[in-house]
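[stage:ingest] chain + small molecule (heme C)
[stage:ingest] validated
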Amino acid sequence: MNRMMGYAIFLAAVSALALLLTACSPSASAQRGQELFDLHCASCHEDPPPDLKKQPPKLEGLFQAKYLPSGAPATDQQVRKTVIEGLRTMPAFDQRLSDQDLNDLLAYLHTLH
Ligand code: HEC
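[stage:predict] done
[stage:export] tokens:
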């Protein structure tokens, strides 16, 4: 009986840990970020309408370069600011994305090489 209980507790602990790891892992965040990207960003940054006043830059390798296309430093903070406030013809997303959304989006953008 005691051994069974111990085993049950051990199993419960292992599955709780596994669940925690999945929920917190960067890849789960990046995966959610990709969904947000497809929903909010891809229509311009992946497949831009030809009549846009300014063609949006491709975002692959965004964080590998030292500077963003605008010349601003390629940091998380700067990209966050761009998405929250918008940039010239790029719309602001402050009303549409939560802090967690932004974290997930950033995690996804970091996976683009
Ligand atoms: C309506 C079209 C449109 C949408 C939607 C859009 N963008 Fe943009 N984005 C642009 C344009 C245009 C620029 C170039 C702005 C400029 O330099 O004048 C840009 C620039 C950027 C830049 C480069 C900023 C810099 O400093 O050079 C980043 C990063 C970016 N967008 C990320 C995103 C993300 C993330 C999303 C989704 C949340 C998104 N954009 C949605 C049009 C769009």
